[in-house]
């Protein structure tokens, strides 16, 4: 019989901004899968982790600090059954942890794309910052293995990562709504991915904006929510397999 102990997942915010961790906690805790325990982790400032991840350099800083803390300082790989890296990118921490453990490690960009491919025809990403966001296009291509017409593209909302949680709420919501409408009207997406962990909980805001613009219904994917579901399943399968080998 499979191990009936709960599946324990570590939900990793790889930056030091506590309000982003709290946002993840608020969004994910009510949706915790049965038989699953979630523990929320914030990157350690004392080891050099940044308050936000906005480019390759801060991604590397984040990965180094978190890996040192999780793998070596706190030895958390032995404590949890799976690990969710909550940064919407091909974050190097995801690959570092996979080198250190055979337990499942999932990034929220990966879980977002998989979920979107199951539920729609074309997905688009709305995210923080400004400009083209070339790195996201590259990350999507790398994960899917090639360019694809199913990727409608990416739009930036013109707000910072920390601003999502700590900036003027009315301004942030207005910009996210405007960007969501453009994603459907201009890019033709029928699924919108929330391209930042700090956007956790904004699904209804995005859906309402598209609906109010007269563009019908759009599906919205939060990669952290999708990631918890995928990760819980993967971890449960691993535990069941390990239990069968002991019999």
Structure description:
- This protein is an alpha/beta fold.
- The protein has helices at residues 18-28, 56-73, 92-100, 108-119, 134-144, 163-166, 169-187, 203-212, 223-246, and strands spanning 7-13, 36-42, 82-85, 105-107, 123-127, 151-156, 191-194, 219-222.
- The strands form two sheets. It has a four-stranded parallel beta sheet, sandwiched between helices. Strands 6-5-7-8 form a four-stranded parallel beta sheet, with helices on both faces.
- Helix 3 (92-100) links the parallel strand 3 and strand 4.
- The chain starts with 6 loop residues before the first strand and ends with a helix.
- The mean pLDDT is 92.
Summary keywords:
9 helices, single chain, four-stranded parallel β-sheet, 16% strand, 8 strands, 247 residues, alpha/beta
The N- and C-terminal alpha carbons lie at a distance of: 9 Å
Using the alpha-carbon principal axes, give the shape: globular
Say how many strands there are.
8
Sheet/helix structural class: alpha/beta
Tell me the strand order in the biggest sheet. Answer: 2-1-3-4
Show unreliable segments: none
Percentage of helical residues? 40-55%
| Rg (C-alpha, Å) | 18 Å
pLDDT averaged residue by residue: 92
Query: Number of helix segments?
Result: 9
Major sheet:
4 strands, parallel
